[in-house]
Amino acid sequence: MKLSILLTLLLTFVGTSSAQLLGGANLPVIKVGKVEYTQGKIDSLTRLLATQQAQGQQVPPEAMTQLRWAVIDNLVGQELLRLEAEALKLKANPKTVDSLITLFKSQFPSEDQFNKELRKSGSNQADFMKKIEKQVQSDMLLESKVPYPKEPTDKERRDYFAKHKHEAVVNDTISGVQIYLKIAKGESAQAITDKKRILDGLSAQLRARKITDLMTLAQQFQLLAAQYSDDPTAREQGGLLKPFVPKTMGNDFVKAIAKLKVGQVSDAFVGKNGVTIFLLTEKNDGKYESYEHKIEYILRLEKEKERQLGVKAYLDQLAKKYPVNYLNKDYTSPTGIGVKAQ
Predict the structure, then answer these.
(1) What's the Cα-to-Cα distance from 117 to each of 77, 85, 92, rounded to whole Å?
(2) Tens digit of pLDDT for each residue in 176-233?
(3) Do 45 and 6 meet the contact criterion of CB atoms below 8 Å apart?
(4) CA 298, 301, 306, 308: dihedral to nearest 10 degrees?
(5) What are the residues whose beta carbons fall under 8 Å from the beta carbon of 83, sequence distance 6 or more?
(6) Tens-place pLDDT, residues 285-320
(7) Which stretches of the chain are DSSP H helices?
(8) Per-residue DSSP letters for 218-253?
(9) CB within 8 A of 304, min separation 6: which ones?
(10) Distance, first Cα to last Cα, the chain
(11) Half-sphere exposure of 284 (CA within 13 A, CB side)
């Protein structure tokens, strides 16, 4: 879920009392046009965002500061976009609004629970719909001014490889993720065949999803490994194998993965650990095909960084049209929207 969308959800269900409780002082620390943001509201949103992202882990002070800057930038940016969208009289697509409302409602066990939480925060469905409409209008405006980057082309990927291939470390190692089911001493051929069918079913499941992003595919594979694998470390590591030379896993393993390309999952085979399936995530053979997924990720990252710079420049431009005042140095990021460089 995008951070701006997540903040819309958090803002909807954070009441004034909880903001004061969590944040302490309820004094305004930022003003955008006529809208004021209090220290309490920002602190509350930062804590809630940290809880949502950390999943029970302790968040270091430095990371909390970065989350606070992210919350502030989103609040300021969203208000600037709202003001400009209102000035331009943009209209939200009803289908997009309905889709987002459905997404939000899906975060709750039932419609009644959703409405209950709305009432607890002093809101209702009509107010909630207006917030979503404003969010959609803001997103429409931003995309029209700073479009999302296009997918990297084959030429861009090959040009990147040609430019950087001398940096690649070429050796016999590979990396990947495995799921295996142990074979007990004296286990019947039928039992082994059944285990192969189970793992081939998992492999088919992944292929059917047609996931092209290697990182997403690996994450899905690791979730399955944590659930099904007999590997004692799978619950923590998700079957992830650090770089290794294939022959150290035995001849059956080498034969089973010989024709795999990066991003492909093997059929089930009997290896030294038992019945196994393997996802190849890295192959250091110096060939373009083995680095294509990694190059795709790098290029996407570079394009997104360029877009974020474009977003920042556009919001800084809006900050000149609609005054942004930071009233407290502890809530003023050095690179915040509308903040003049020192």
Answers:
(1) 26, 29, 25
(2) 999 999 999 899 999 999 999 999 999 999 988 888 889 999 999 999 999 999 999 8
(3) no
(4) -170
(5) 32, 33, 318, 322
(6) 999 999 999 999 999 999 999 999 999 999 999 999
(7) 3-13, 16-23, 39-54, 61-87, 94-105, 111-120, 125-145, 154-164, 189-208, 214-228, 234-237, 251-257, 288-321
(8) HHHHHHHHHHH---TTHHHHTTEEEEE-GGGG-HHH
(9) 149
(10) 34
(11) 16
DSSP string for residues in 80-115: HHHHHHHHTT----HHHHHHHHHHHHTTSS-HHHHH
SS3 state of residue 178: strand
pTM attached to this predicted model: 0.77
What count of other Cβ atoms lies within 10 Å of the Cβ of residue 275? 25
CB 118 within 8 A of CB 131: no
DSSP 8-state assignment for residue 331: G
- Segment holding 256, helix H or strand E: helix 251-257
CB contact at 8 A, 233 and 170:
no
List, edge to edge, every strand of the sheet that includes 174-181.
240-244, 174-181, 274-283, 269-271
Domains of the chain: 3-150+305-331 (1.10.4030.10), 169-285 (3.10.50.40)
**Distance between CA 287 and CA 292 in Å, rounded?**
9
Instruction: Look up tokens 């803002």; give the residue.
Output: 11
Residues with Cβ < 8 Å from 177, sequence gap 6 or more? 218, 221, 222, 225, 238, 239, 240, 241, 278, 279, 281
C-beta neighbour count of 53 within 10 angstroms: 13
Residue 241 in tokens: 């194998």
Q: Which residue has the tokens 């084959």?
A: 154
Rounded CA separation 128/296 (Å): 38
